[in-house]
Amino acid sequence: MTTERIQHIRKADRDSLWFLGDNVQIIFDASHTEGKLLLAWQHMAPGATPPLHEHAVEDEMFFLLEGSITYWSGDREFTAGPGDAVLLPVGVPHTLQADPEAGAKFLLLTSPTGFEDFLRAVSEPATYDGPQRGWQMDEETARKLGAAAEQAKITIIAPPGTRP
Fold first, then answer.
1. In the sheet that 52-55 helps form, which strands lie side by side, from edge to edge?
2. pTM higher than 0.90
3. Which of 19, 27, 107, 128 is the most interior residue, by most CB within 10 Å?
4. Is residue 3 predicted with pLDDT exceeding 90?
5. Can you give the residue ranges of every domain in the chain?
């Protein structure tokens, strides 16, 4: 039996990033899982919503810890709360929105890995836990988002607030 891949990641040792104003902490990435799985913790600000987009490489899975998120994926709309799990498969346009009052905390899994490179390319180091106070999309972030999405084979279909 081989044990060299056993990992223990303490909270203080995670990469903590601000991604589009949300706090994302990468727990396990390609370097830990031989490219099979990304596991991250995310705290979305109240009402936060990404652009309508589609992944060409990875499935996304969400496990809600606190708050709620409304999802629009393909022709479906639903709201998930604590303890719920959501799978958004590769190739299906989708977006989501955190509860406008409470935001949301969840575990994000993607398979295969690579999504962490996208997150890191668009993010900046977080200096505190939680969403970035006062965050607004600016031209530099929009440029980084577009370039990173192209590299990651993520198609941005429409701006935040647009539904499939």
1. 76-80, 69-73, 94-98, 52-55, 154-158
2. yes
3. 19
4. no
5. 11-158
